[in-house]
Amino acid sequence: MSPERAPFAALDDILRRTRYLLIDFDGPFCSLFASTPTAPVADDLRAVITRNEVSLPVAIQNTTDWFEILAYAASVGPDVGASVESALTELETKAVTTASPTPYIRDVIAACRESGRAVAVISNNSTSAVRAYLNAHDLASQISAVAARTRPDPTILKPSPHLIKDAASALGASQSTCAVVGDSQSDIQAAHSAGALSIGYAKTPADADHLTAVGADTVILSLADLALRLRARTADPEL
User: Fold this and answer.
1) Domains and CATH numbers, the chain
2) Among the four residues 31, 132, 211, 227, which has the most C-beta atoms within 10 Å?
C-alpha cells in the first residue's frame, strides 16, 4: 500500500464491506441551528413544560440539550411529551430556513450515486424538519430513505439502534451492509448496537479523538475525503 493511500485504509475497508450510507442530519448533513441561537430553544421547551404546571428538576433547568428536555417531558406524561415534541418540531422546521449545508455533502451524495450506493438520512431531529430541508435544497429525490423522529418517545432515538434499523428496512438492506456517518458519540453507539459500521465525522482533531475513543471504525475530518474514496470504490452489487 502506498503512503498516500495508507490514511484511508480503514475507510476503504468500510466502503468495500457496505453498500448503503446512513448519514446523520445535524452535523454531517447540515448545521441545523447554524444561524439560530440554541439557548432559547431549550428555554422555549422548558416553558412548554411549566405551562403544564410541572416543576423542573435542577438538571433540566440548567441543560441546553433539548433532547434531555424532551425525554423529561415524555417521562412526565404523554400529553406533556407530545406538547414538547410538537414545539421542538416547529423550532427545528423554522431553523431549516437558515441551516448551513456541510461542505462537500452534495459531493458525497453524488459519489454514492455514481458508485452504486444508496443514501439515507437518520436523525433525532423531526422527520418534518429533515424533509423540509431536503425539499428546500432540492435533494429529496437523491435520498432513498429518511428515518427520523416522529413521536415523543426518547427510547427510539440514538443511541438506540431503532432509527438505523428503520433506515435499513426502508432500503431493503441488511444492517451489516450499512455504514453510519455521524459526528456524535450517540451515532457511533447506535451503529454498533445495530451491527452497522461507523464513520466518524470530526470538525477538529479533538473531536476525532473523542469519536475514536467511543469506537468509531474510522474518522474523517472532511466529507471531501469520503467523496473521494466513494468514487474510487464501486459498491459490490452482491451486498
Assistant:
1) 6-32+101-232 (3.40.50.1000), 39-97 (no CATH)
2) 211
